[in-house]
Amino acid sequence: MRDESGAVIRLEDYRPTDYLIDRAELDIRLARHATRILAKLHLRANPAGRPAAPLVLDGDELRLVSLAIDDVPAAPEAFEASPERLVIHAPPAQPFTLTIETEINPTANTKLMGLYRSGSAYCTQCEAEGFRRITYFLDRPDVLSVFTTRIEADRDEAPVLLGNGNPVAAGDAGGGRHFAIWHDPFPKPCYLFAIVGGRLDKVADRFTTMSGRAVEVAVYVEPGKAEDATYALDALKRSMAWDERVFGREYDLDVFNVVAVSDFNMGAMENKGLNIFNDKYVLASPETATDADYANIEAIIAHEYFHNWTGNRITCRDWFQLCLKEGLTVFRDQEFSADERSRAVKRIADVRVLRAQQFAEDSGPLAHPVRPRQYREINNFYTATVYEKGAEVIRMLKTLIGDDAFRRGMDLYFDRYDGTAATIEEFLACFAEASGRDLGHFAQWYEQAGTPTVNARGHYDAEAKTYRLALTQATPPTPGQPEKSPQLIPISLGLVGQSGAEIALSPAATAGHMPGVFVLDGPSATLTFTHVPERPVPSLLRGFSAPVRLEIDLEEDDLLVLFRHDSDPFNQWQSAQTVATRAILRAVGAGTPPVPDRRMADALRHFLAMRAGSDPAFAAQVLALPTEADIAREIGHDVDPDAVHRARRLVKVEIGAALAAELAELYGKLSTQEPYAPDAAGAGRRALRNACLDLFAAGLPAEGEELAMRQFRGADNMTDRFAALGVLSHLPGTARETALGEFAERFRGNALVLDKWFSLQAMIPEPETLERVRGLMRHPAFSMGNPNRVRSLIGSFAMANLTQFNRPDGAGYDFLADTVIALDARNPQVAARLLTAFRTWKMLEPARRAEAEKALRRVADTPGLSPDVADISGRSLS
Ligand code: ARG
Ligand code: ZN
């Protein structure tokens, strides 16, 4: 346990280190139980630090073997070493070297931070504070060093030895051992350090950069899986080309390696020249990966590659600035996927994720600003707010200053801060300079937590031909921020006539900003449009131009006008979602099916006839109803998850039944046999066909079951097979159990596919599910030691099964509490992440709220908790 556990770290306390480490030469001798690290650090006093201060290096569970200062063994009174710290009382005044030898046990490292073993390979994860588990260091992002790394291992056990930077030497080390030396010429913080050693296969290629340099690119995987890495390699090359084309950023080393490992706490990691990935985001074949898996692989490969400039060449001054690299890099990967696939569909998918994850976080006890001001455990701040809302802030910036100024600002940022550890203020100053705009108020998006609500009320004066739009905004209180100020909210908007024509905006309405964008920067504003020939329907927040909740007094008929005619595809989709949301909310209130609303079914029928053929991916998004969690957030307080589930089900059944004929026909039309390819067009057709199957089965369960079973057995790809299994999983009976059995049998031994199988069963909205989940924990393919297994089975149950996690008897909460407590001893990071399933507990009805609180309190009161779980349980209860 780290001894600063419980201490609060504050942004305002930042000060530079007293020493700098210009160079780090590491010699790592890999061995399963006793790996030795010899680190020669070249230090000097930091001109910005305190003179003649003691040198305090960070450690975590380290054992010091030997220490020399300027190559002379250090006298015992010259230093003090503990597992967490190495203090040199009076370092030399001139630049000096420290030679530190430590010993660690990678096999015993179940936290998967620092150097650990995954399968038969050695690998590392150092962000945020894992490097201190390898050797003593100034483990913080503002200490940049040039690393040279010698790795030695048994040739048999680890024929492949990879490090950061470029390979400079390799050879025999005697006694069955061999070595490789890697040199990274770019100064970097130690969180970007990585090594890998193991028996691995690879797929490799060559990428020629825009200035004509050849780069060896390779993806390393477990033996026998190289073929499943070809899509990832292709995505990597496309990412490299895109970053040159769109941001002018060229790759800077001779090699770029990606390694897939099966035990990984997060998605992936951008170590310089040596990205390490959760294999879930690398391995794919048509038989084992869905279209969604392929899209994730593409996005995460791009994300980690893009970090080379936004994160590595320019890093963060301190961990409070995490969004400087993460929000920006998410924005970049979103844009990449939008360019490679459908921009409209990508935006809808991203907003779905934002609302499901970030809005949920922002409305509960774990809410925090995009740039937090304090933390106890930084690993708990790799959140949807830092990542997804962080990306929305960059998107708003681009909307506000326009594409050209945005690109100039980025160029200036790369130019000015290359090779440094920067702050949000420095980043924003580049855009202020490039655009000539004052971004002072805009910067508040980094400081103020909570999701603003924008309320809009429209009034048309037929006589004067004017349309008045009254806008107000308010942000609810969040922990530590009881009073909120108005945010600066870019509202992209248009007016749509009853027959669908776009009404020209009188110029005054959005004067001073980008065309079609009104900037709401106070508590309220009234917009007056003149020369409006007919009563318009306002289309607000086009493209979801700001991460806010929009309340607008539109009638169903007006929403349907937008659904049919809006030139903005996001708002087309949004208006259909709003109509469906209202129908479900009415059903929650009534407890019975609402009076069937013909208009919605008619509009969907018309829409499918017009658009299903030309834009299937978009049509699939339209057919997907808001989730139970969406509805729960809409209700906001005293939520009864069972009532939400019943109401949503009723509406789905009603729509499915009303459209059964059209859905069946469309399903048939989309069933033409074409060989599977993971491209966007094919994925769109499969998405729509599977959305049809899902709705059809809700309306006509018996026929749906038969159709789904046929698709399940006949599919030649995982997308269709798994979608069919998903439909079956919601139909209780023997067909479901048969299909689940066949699936497990077919994919026996394939851990990543069985994760899907675990997750699907954990999401069944029936009271027997908790017992099923307990049973699956004893399945031979399950292991509490593997984060992917834990997340697919227990994570899916807690995060994606609203009715069963929130069972009225509290058994779901107790189960999660027990699991988190047990897991905490082994892997605190994954345990803490699992516990965030309670992030919305305060919006439940009182009986469930009491049960949830009891379970949370039991976790919080457990002795010996990690700082990770102590922090989440503590904040959740506050
Ligand atoms: N920087 C990684 C990314 O690309 C995430 C690493 C998070 N690691 C952690 N231990 N919290 O998003
Ligand atoms: Zn990242």
TrEMBL record:
* The entry's keywords: Aminopeptidase, Hydrolase, Metal-binding, Metalloprotease, Protease, Zinc
Top enzyme class, one word, equals hydrolase
Cite the GO molecular-function annotations of the record: alanyl aminopeptidase activity; metallopeptidase activity; zinc ion binding
The Enzyme Commission number assigned here is 3.4.11.2
Q: What is this protein called?
A: Aminopeptidase N
Q: Has keyword Zinc?
A: yes
Enumerate the catalysed reactions: Release of an N-terminal amino acid, Xaa-|-Yaa- from a peptide, amide or arylamide. Xaa is preferably Ala, but may be most amino acids including Pro (slow action). When a terminal hydrophobic residue is followed by a prolyl residue, the two may be released as an intact Xaa-Pro dipeptide
